[in-house]
Design a protein that fits this description.
28% helix; 21 strands; 12 helices; binds pyridoxal-5'-phosphate; eleven-stranded mixed beta sheet; alpha/beta; TIM Barrel; Lyase, Ornithine Decarboxylase, Chain A, domain 1
Length: 388
Amino acid sequence: MDNQEFYRGTWAEVDLDAIEQNVKSFKKYVSNEVSVMAVVKANGYGHGAVAVAQKALRAGAEYLAVAILDEAIALREAGIEAPILVLGWVPPIYAEVAARNGITLTVFQEKWLEEAASILGKTLLNIHLKIDTGMGRLGIKEEDEAKQLIECLATHSSFYVEGFYTHFATADEPGNPFIEIQIDKFEKLASFLKENGLQPKWVHLGNSAGSIRVPKRIGNLIRLGISMYGLSPSQEMKSIQPFKLNAAFRLYSQVVHVKKMMAGEPISYGSTYHTSEGEWIGTIPIGYADGWIRKLSDAYVLVNGERAPIVGRICMDQFMVRLPSKIEVGTKVTLIGKEGSEEITIDDIAERLETINYEIPCMIGPRVPRLFKEYGEKKGVMNTILKK
Ligand SMILES: *Cc1c(COP(=O)(O)O)cnc(C)c1O
């Protein structure tokens, strides 16, 4: 587990039970023949890749996916033995490193195969062939490219083609028919590859949104990312979400200083805020260097179940809030999460920042420790004295 000691009063709580529930809900929703690949790139969307991967595997996921080889190796170093697919392009000179670590790579270029083959020799590398059906990012697009790959694969014994896949561009737009066009294109190219002798174990098309929208047409594996973390792929998808998602990420801090202000006193850099007579101002030890960016200077946090607006500019490591009343130093503050009847969600923060929810937990930096909650128990040691 990623848990380690930390000495600050700011932390993210990651609810591993929520991850488990979400994986199980997806498994139930798709047919029995469809397996789950847990996407844990970018440190598990900021939640903690190792802990999330372990939990997802225990909940029934069979495969893991990351964006870069380094992330895959970090999972191996943490003792994870499950198959791992790297979704991005890996420089072919590292093909042997991948093979040695039992890591599966994404492949779609003939030249890549040639270079990798010269490095691999007799070492066998597991690969998934990527087909670009409309994302315009990675993958082969045409039959003649497929033909070249097939010919190249036939001349080398270094590769085992374990999978075919593609990625949707508009799966999170429920009314958009482009997903069907992508599926048709994929099926055509996949059939061509199969007719030419490739019989992969895995065929996968769906991200979270695709798996929800077309569960019968996404092959035998889903690449489950955002919704494993309990978030909807888009606002529009919420209205067709067939089962409950459980958000796993919360962000907490504490009040480290409290003072009563007189009328007209300035707060923070630039003196952009001036207090009114008798205002209680609290200082919270998290700032833009932690990913709580300056654009959030008009947001609020929750203190004792009440909203406390951020006042003045957010600093690198701290910001100030206007407290509902005098409170004690050490009182817990919720930046993302629930307190009584009030809740601040990742979607709220994303909307405020005019971005997508994916970006929010990724933004919360490595200086913020992740505390894992499992079976109601919080694992990890916090040495800061927290009053509440
Ligand atoms: C990130 C990623 C996913 C996961 O997508 P979600 O929308 O988070 O479910 C799936 N496939 C590929 C290729 C990705 O890059």
